Structure formats: structure tokens, C-alpha cells
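pipeline: protein-struct stage 2 | run 1193 | Calcium-binding protein
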Amino acid sequence: MANLFGTEGNDSILGTTSPDKIYGYPSGGFPDAESGDDFLRGGAGNDDLYGGGGNDTLMGDAGGDELYGHDGDDLLIGGDGNDYYEGGAGADTIVIGDDANDTFLGGTGDDLIRLADHTSYQKFILDEVASIETLDLAGFVLSGTASSDTWDLSGVTVIDTHGKAIDMGAGNDRFTGHAGADSVVGGEGHDTFLGGGGDDVFWGGNGANQYDGGAGDDTFWISHNDTEAYQGGEGTDTVALEANATRYRMILDAATGIEVLDLNGHALTGTNYADIFDFSGLSRVIYSGPAVDLGIGHDHFTGHEGADRVLGASGDDTLLGAGGDDYLDGGSGDDSLEGGAGADTVLGAEGNDLISGGAGNDMLSGQDGEDVIAGGDGADNLAGGAGADSLLGEAGNDLIGGGEGNDTLSGGAGDDTVGGGADNDLLFGDAGNDKLSAGTGNDTLDGGLGDDMLSGGFGEDSLAGGDGADNIGGGTGRDRLDGGEGDDSLGGGEGDDTLSGGSGDDFLAGGGRHDVIDGGAGDDLINGGQGDDLLTGGAGADLFIFTAFNDGEIDRILDFEDGTDLIRLAGIQGAPGSGLEGKLDALDLTNTTLEGVSGVSISYHGQTIFVAGVTASDLTLEDFVFV
């Protein structure tokens, strides 16, 4: 071992192959301002170089060297080996090149570390204690090792990467960034990134990585199949897919501080297990490609306030859309799907699904299975599909179709259009001016409040208008029509129908075949139509209308009130010039008894009208209206 001393001047001292101590000042002296600008080179071995008070150049060469710059703007070049650098006072430059694990202490002044070649470090600490202000990669790659590396650049003020990212390499690495913008690749392994300030960009690579961006608008690039933990910190932070990725857990709620998820056209999929995806903290998701596919399993998805696109696939999934115009497809299984606010499209597919549209104009489809669907606020489109479904439109002007199966369909508030489809359905208009159509099957329709339009369709249907001025048509089959309160219009259509006007001034027409008609309270207009009809006016001044006479038909008026009710006849021909008296004379009025009830038989062209409870002498011109 040699101790080599310089002078007060500008010295050039070279070490030996042994471990040397080289001083840029005289033996017994001090590294003060009188020292010159020295060049000290250690050579092979573990050397200690002391620069003195000038602007010195210290070159360690091979070995684990210790370089002390002391005063002045020094240049410290470590060379090979695990070196120790201490710049001292002044603006010092430390040049590193070969792979090593060095220790740095910049001292006072603005100190800089510069790469001389591509190099890698397992431990690279430039924290506040190290007092290094600038890191300059000089166009080279600074990388980690295959082991678990620890890098801390938190004390650095400026990092100049010359457009290149720092590569941590394989292993479970930990990186702590500086106050500016860091650009770091994690590589293989489970890495931890701490960004500090600035707009940082971290590429996680494979592994279950942890990201903390700190202040700034940070971007975390992810890929492959591991699960990460995120903490965005201040600023607008982004998680971006670098390639197709599979996750069983992806939490981006409000606590993570992540604002944007950018899929970059790649596929984000779940696993075959119970996956959890939570995007509730995001302000934006950029899909630009396929929807998130949760895959097989009982998965749980929570969306963000924007538009989400999610496929549940098989399994009993829970998909919550939150805000935005969402697309949620539960796939097969018994799914729970909620669109939330926005104009959502929600599909149940196979299985017994629970679907809620939330606020907005939604399109909701249960498809196969026994589904429960609620539209929420807005003008919604609800389709039950196959199975015994329960559909509720709720607030808004909704369009509801039950499809196959014995469905229960409720319009809720608003002017709704409800169609029963196949099988035996229950249709409720609820509040509003609704349109209800029974479809095939034996259906039950209830218009509820409002001026409703009810159509029976095929099958033996039961139609009730409820409150309001309703328009009710029975369609084919033996239908039961009830106008309820209000001035209603009822038409039995084909089949042996039963019509009840309820309260109000109603119009009731039986249509074809043999009908039973009761006008109820109010001044009603009653037309039995074709067939042998039973007609009851109920309370009020009723008008019984006969527009055609068919040979062999017998209609019955069961409660004609003389002096109050009227019979209107069309097409009656009296003797020429006889006037109304002649029309009355053309009618064959005969007192008779029909099935134990006494009354008057009015016959004309082979058709009979039996009026119960009166006699032929009771019926005068005042009881008829001829047209």
C-alpha cells in the first residue's frame, strides 16, 4: 500500500497496482484553497483519492475506490468496482460507467452524475442525503439487474434521459422518483414505483406491480396477467394497457386517485374465477376497441361516471354501470345488472336476471329466463324475452314488451306502451295515458289512471280501463271489458264478450257473436252488434242502438226505463208518406214472455229485440229514435 502526496501546485499522480492513498496536497497539509487543480488516478486496487482544494480530476480505475473531491468543481470518475464518491464543496461531476453498486455524497454545490456507458445498478440511491442535483444519462441506458433492485432518485432535481427510459430489469424492484418527470420500465418481477412530483411514465411489465404517481399527470402502463395496486396522487393520472391483459382484480375507485383508463384498443378480460373490477373513481375510460370481458365466473363490475362497455359472459355477475351511456351484457347466468344514470343498453341473456336501467332513456332486455326488469326514470325500452318476466317501466314514457312466458308488465308513471306477447300476461298501465296490447294468450289488462287505450288481441282477455276516458277493444276471443270511471269507449270485437261501462257516459259496442253489455252509471250508448246480445243500460239516460237487423237474432234489453232510455233504430221503412208513425207501425210490437220474464218483442226483418219490464202500450214514438 502506498501513500502518495502532491504539492500546492497542479499535480498529476498515478497510483500503483496496490491499494493506494493519493492526496492532491502535501503530506501534513490540508485541502485548502491554495491547492492546485490536480489529476489523481488510482490504478488497480481499492484506492482512496483526495482531491484537495482545486478543481480536481479523480479517476479510480479498477477496484472499489473512494473518491473525495473536497473544495472546487471536481470531476470524479470511479471506473470498475463498487465506489464511494464524495464531491465536497463546489459543483462536482461524477461519471459512472461500468456495472457497480456505488455510494454517492455530493456535498454542497450543484452536483451531477453522468453515465459514461450503458450500466446497471442493483442499488442506486440518490436521495436528499446523497445531495446529487442532476442525473444525466448522456444517451446511455441505466438499468437494474436480474435481482431485486432498489433505486431512489428522490433527491435529484433534474434527470436528463435523452429520450430513453430507465430500465429496472428483472426482479422485484423498487423505484423512487424525483420531483420532475420520471420514465421507468419495470420489466419482469413485482415492482414498486414511487413517482414523486412531475408527469411520470411507468411501464410495469409482468408482475403484480404497485404504482404511486405522486404529484403530476402520471401514466402507468400495464400488460399481461398480473394484478396491480394504484395510487395516482395529485394530477390527472392514467392507467393504460400496453397489450391484451387478463385480471381477476382491478380496483380503480376514488381512493386510488386514478382518473383515466386507456385500453388503447387492447382486450381487458377477466379470469375463470370471481373477478372484481371497480372503475368508480375514473372520470374517463377510453375503449377504442372491444368491451371489458369479465369471462367465466361470478364477477363484480362497478363502472365510472362515463360510458362503460362490459361483457359478463357466463356466471352470476353483478354489473353496475353508474353514470354515462353504458353497455352491459350479463351473458348467461343469474345476473344483477344496473345501468345507472345515462342512456344505457343492458342485456341479460340466459338466466334469471335482475335488471335496472336507472335514470336516462334505457334499452333493457332480459332475453331467456325469468327476469325482473325496472326501467327507472326516462323513456325506456324493456323486453322480457322468453320466460315468466316481471317488467316495470317506472317514471317516463316507456315501451314494454313481455315476449314469451306468463309476464307481469307495469308501465309505471308516464304515457307507456305495453305489449304482452305470447302466453298469459298481466299488463298494468298505472299512471298516465297508456297503450296496452294483450298479444296472444289469455291476458289481463289494467289501464290504471289516465286516458288509456287497451287492446285485447288473441285469447280470452280481461281488460279494465280504470280511471279516465279509456278506449278498450277486446279483439278475438271471449273477452271481459270494464271501462271503470270516466267516459269510456268499449268494443268487444270478435267472440262472446262481456262489457261493463262503469261510471261515466260510455260507448259500448259488442261486435260479433253473443255479448253481455252493461253500461253502468251514466248516459251510455250501447250497441250490441251482431249476435244474440244481453243489454243493460244501468243508471242514467241510455241509448240502445241497432244499426242492422239480421234474421234469427234475438237481442235483449233488460232494464229499459220508459221515459228515460231510448231505442235508436236504423233502416226502418214505413208506408210511403206515413212519417215516423209509419216507422213505428212497421215494427211488430208484441207483449210476450221470454224465459220467465215479461216484456215486449220488437220484430223487424226477422230479428227480434226483447225489451223486458214494459208493455207494447208503453212504447211510443217518444221511446224511439229513427235514423
